[in-house]
Design a protein that fits this description.
ten-stranded mixed β-sheet
Amino acid sequence: MCIFVDVQIPGSFFDHVAACDGFDEHEFRAAHAEAPQVSVRLHHRKPACSFALTDPVPWMDNAYYLPEKPYFAHDPFFHAGCYYVQEAGSMFLGFLLEKITADNKAITALDLCASPGGKSTLLRSMLPEHSLLISNEAIRNRTSALIENVMKWGEPGVMITHNDVAHFAQLHACFDLVVVDAPCSGSGMFRKDEKAVAQWSEELVDTCAIRQRNICNNICNAIKEGGYLIYSTCSYSREENEDIIASLVGSGIFKLIHWALPAEWNIVQNKYGYRFYPGKTRSEGFFISVLQKVGSTGMMRSPGSIQWEEAPSAVADAMRSFFLNDGSLKLLLHKDLVLGFPEMCLPAALPIISHLHALRIGLPLATLKGRDIIPEHPLAMSAYLHPELPVHKVDLPDALNYLRRGTIASELPAGWFQVTYQERTLGWAKQLGNRINNYYPTEWRLRK
């Protein structure tokens, strides 16, 4: 498959990156004359997909390269949150996370620039038990994708927030780990995105570098002493990568952390981090670095108001037919929404969430509507479904019809039931005498 690199990438780009560690122009051009590599990462709790998985990503468990890009929208397992389509380079976060959490102690983590949710779902799968994850997105029109992907992942120990990075400067020593996948000039996506080629310039690189420094400066205060900052971009430019890391180390607040890598991975490692190049690795362009905080900064401002309360016991009683709590979740009430939040995470969550604009807290379980309780879709994606809940099994055509919010037929008695495809839950439906209501979320419905 011929891509557009030789024609559209300006010569100034090659001059700009010629001195970068590991860059080889001939190898780069050859790689960009081939199709981008596609890779997926399976859910740790409900792994499934509709295609063969035989080619593993070497640095990430349960992750695989695909021989070609399937039409994911027509795979029910994709909609059931059974896997996530993610660049192999981005999955290197998993390798680093294993090193950082080797003692298996619960931590509080922040994914600062989280949309569309690849790194958040990876973090939520791999963080030690009882860990708390804050997934933040500053740009409002990007939050919907983050919410959808995290909710389909179906894990309770996540809070999704919508805050400017500057808001985190007021938090003092709250996070054991902060992941900053920083907005960048996007040169690492040249092979996949013509827009990235069209918009690239050295001026854009300089603008992004200023923004990246501002992001890192704002988040320093929120990291605990001894905590970690993982910084990454999909840019090749030193100004957005090594120079940012050198500045953080030069501040005296951070020190660099390195781990040796197998030579066969072909990841370029230098003093400041790890570089991924198409042609060397089966990935798009990527840079990632690990820093550990050694100094202290700032003070925390006073808490704000809490917007939720503990749900009455009557609500928990009414939900028992479709919700099975193993005792780990605290039921909270936000207006008419019932939420399940890990009780062990509450002490870490309280001083943080009072400062932030939360879009989702934990696992949405149900909505109260008068005397009725309407189960929420994320509950269907979770491990908390009651094992005796009625099940309506569908084949592929009926699964796709359900995902379009089409009409379904069932012989089940009146009441709520889950719609499943090959043992994986797709969502809710309700038998109402002579009709069945399809409760797949309207905003997520399959449109083709």
